[in-house]
Amino acid sequence: MKPGSLDCHQHMIEIEDLSFSYGEQKVISGLNYTVKERDFLGIIGSNGAGKTTLLKMIVGLLPASSGEIRLFGEPVRKFKDWERLGYVPQKNAFNPLFPATVREVVLSGLYNNKNLIRRVSKAQQQQCDDALEVMRIQDIAEKRVGQLSGGQQQRVFLARALINHPDLLILDEPTVGIDAETQAGFFDLIMHMHAHHHMTFLMVSHDIDMIKNYLGHEPVQSNGKINFYCRHSHEAQDCVEENLQHTLV
Amino acid sequence: MEILFSDFFQRALAGGLLIGITAPLIGVFLVLRRLSMIGDTLAHVTIAGVALGFLTGFYPLGAGLIFAVAASFAIEKLRKAYKSYAELSIAIIMSGGVALASLFFTLGKGYNADVMSYLFGSIYTLDNMDLIVVGLVTIAVVVVVTLFFKEFFLLSFEEDAASVSGLPVKLLNMLITILTALVISTAIKIVGSLLVSALLTIPVAISLLLSRSFKSSVILSVIIAEIAVVGGLVVAGIWNLAPGATIVLLLIALLALTLIGKKGLPA
Q1: How many domains does chain A have?
Q2: A106, A150, A172, A203: which one has the fewest Cβ atoms less than 10 Å from its Cβ?
Q3: Which residue of B has its CA nearest to A120?
Q4: Which of 150-189 (A) contact B at CB < 8 A?
């Protein structure tokens, strides 16, 4: 996170009276919610509940039927500071036969509206090396992404999302199609990042047990078939330290 | 063999070498975005423009180029109208192109031999003006792809991620489609409209089997296309065959060899 770039409890995402319909079918109706700095918001819902629709509206991929979404105080349609936001898509969003190395994919996290046309600098190559190292994937940097395991691919996409040191990380069902053990490892990794690096997270998931385990058993809000679970990083740090104490005893 | 040193063959070779750069350079983005059929569609529309050029006395390649660019805009427009059925736009424009071409063919009688060279390619028809147009298109394609290489990479790898990075996705899509129209309309005089999409797709299909990185697959596609273009033109020149056919059959032979070689390699 960029030091001093955020006020305490800044509003990262503001959702105001948001509605969305597919034809006659209302998926989201009159939703109001604010994600504050250092929150970890888990959005849970069954297939077709509208959670991916909501996420697509938040990142500006889909226009709302009515209402407004603001990112860092700016309406999403006018938002320009995309480097402040990291995005981890669903695993099936990319073509596994695509000829791209891990390094090429991680580096693509730097390709944004502010770097248009410019060549990749040495400093950016170093940023890429750092992101590879943080995710412990430097050994597979020259391998083709489609040939990696599901868990390794998720680390690649996480490295790509983190390369810009974003303030807000958005994850869309990051563990779909990954075995249970790798899923648990992935959750541990992002929970650790939330607790110790004070980033703000928004994660869409269908894995209710994993979300409840970390974000608490009661949803903070519901809208239709979508439930919101939230935890602030102060609480998260306590929780992680508590777990550590138990382990030491 | 004398034919290989003739002016018209040298022109065809120069044009072919340039098209061997531009076709796979654009083809790689089309194939990876599963838009290979756009090449065929624009080729059919280009032929309608060429036929109109013959009918009206307007420079045929220029008319084909204008038709192809107009069709590329129409495809983008239709893709927006039928978001969930993007392939519909390709089917509509392709059939519209064929319909227009056959209309112009039947209106203008007596130039069928010329039109044949646009359908299957020819080493005899490329004149100096055509060579200048191919050269300008090559410069445009190489410059735009070099400038936007990393943006085109992200767009092809994952369009949603490109949008969330704030890249001008609509503009980049439009650029790729316009460049495709330019490449196809200039390539059809050598390869022919019925076979031009093979030059955009088969070199890429081969490189996908052999490359690990995106950059290496782009470079390898260009090398493969150049081998096929030079080899195909020489064979066509010596035995007086349609170069479109020899280039494409050579590409298919290279693809078959690669597939056999890959099967023989340990996993």
Answers
A1: 1
A2: A150
A3: B150
A4: none
